[in-house]
Design a protein that fits this description.
alpha/beta, Rossmann fold, 4 domains, seven-stranded parallel sheet
Amino acid sequence: MYNPQNPLIIQSNSTILLEVNNPLFAEARNAISLFAHLDKSPEYIHTYSITPLSLWNAASLGITAQQVIDRLSRFSKYPLPGNVAEDIIELIGRFGKISLESDPVGLVLRSSDTSLLHHLTLHPQLSPLVDRTIDDNTVLVSRKYRGLIKQVLISIGYPAHDKAGYVDGEPYPIELRKQTARGEEFKVREYQRLAAENFIGNLESPGGSGVVVLPCGAGKTIVGIYVMSLLKRKTLILVTNVTAARQWKREILDKTDLKESDIGEYSGESKEIKPVTLATYQIITFRKNKNGPFIHYDIFNSENWGLIIYDEVHLLPAPVFKFTADLQARRRLGLTATLIREDGHEADVFTLIGPKKFDIPWKDLERQGWIAAARCIEIRVDLPQQEKMRYLTLTPNKQIRFAYENPSKTAVVKELLEKHKNDQVLVIGQYLSQLESLSKEFNASVITGATSNKKRDQLYNDFRTGKLKLLVLSKVGNFAVDLPDANVAIQVSGSFGSRQEEAQRLGRILRPKKKQEQAVFYSIVTRESRELDFAMKRQLFLTEQGYSYEIQYREIE
């Protein structure tokens, strides 16, 4: 249907152009976000792409090819190109054409498409993993290759639907409290309940592996704890750092009937294995030299785990994918604010942790009051005049850091701190010399990777209690920091064009505020520099979630 008033132009290369200044912009954006990725977001036209993985994730949520086509047609200015519709039908149709199932003879690959199964088993990557043909629709494979087979199949373009089930693991009683240990009423929110139940599945659609996507501050930890209470099994929880491990422990003790003696910490500081064990990614991937063995790998098999939780799954180190390929018989829950990985391992998350089981737009939770309303403001500032010529003489890599550490940013930070002197403010950056300078300038405590865990815990607690109103954080503040009263973040530098980092940093201030005040996320960027290019890329994910960036300028005196 031709309708020039609609906001979408779907192109034959599977890209989508979305008009920002169109009355149907928000509705169209929400309609396509489940199966398309935002690639560019300048002022007037946003560009999305439909990829095999985006369609397979949509299919894993039960979205059909016809629903995708209907959504595109509903908002398109022009008729949907025939090849795009055909590709959508073809790609979504591939999801589940091959299934992994348990059979009395062992683990089997099964397909109703006899010809497809036959040709796939002849593929040079898959052939060595096949033991023998059982019948025209079934081949026997080794259980130890369950993860590797899924990786091979998705690389060929036929993601397997894993129906082989899971070992139950050792039972361990875990009950949720009706009142927290602190005496407050506790109830799992509706979206948290749906997320957990989508992961668990039912008789018609059994679950047990997959990823739950929720914004920072929306209670991903509660989803994990609720799943633990539903399964009642020994649980291994993998986290980004010791701070995150201790936050998980506090939440578990506060929200369940587990005792401190039930929970172990497995990190650089402690090596306890208990019915519920919290292990850091750093210790799991530790080895004495580059080619040496991962000496803590045995933690995965030290207990009969019934559940493995991967916190901040978008940050999962690559070696953990290898371990996870061997753990396909264990239930696996990934928790994240974004499925975006800057290293291109999204397909590994999909195959080895599991497909997306639950997702909800950030703005929906904001409207419901579960996360704070937030303004995003980009402040552009020039380099000092004497530094502009020096910038032009530097190599591209040095130009980036030079722009990030622009000394003119200090005056902007000073202005913002004065404006928000009654707020709880985080200053976040990438470069330690810059952060140390700002710490001295504003007499503020700073937390970096070198800060001891004891000192970090003390500073975080002082900030939570209001004893500190300002905290300077390096990239250790990107994730797993529970600072519910923080309502202003000032970003002075970052990891190039990292979309996931931008989302994590905004997430530091999204927890609901007692006084319902609006959170403000400032990003200070150097004009006429490569930092500005990176800033536009960093903002993509949040733009996709419905946030817009106000642009302001500051003149240097």
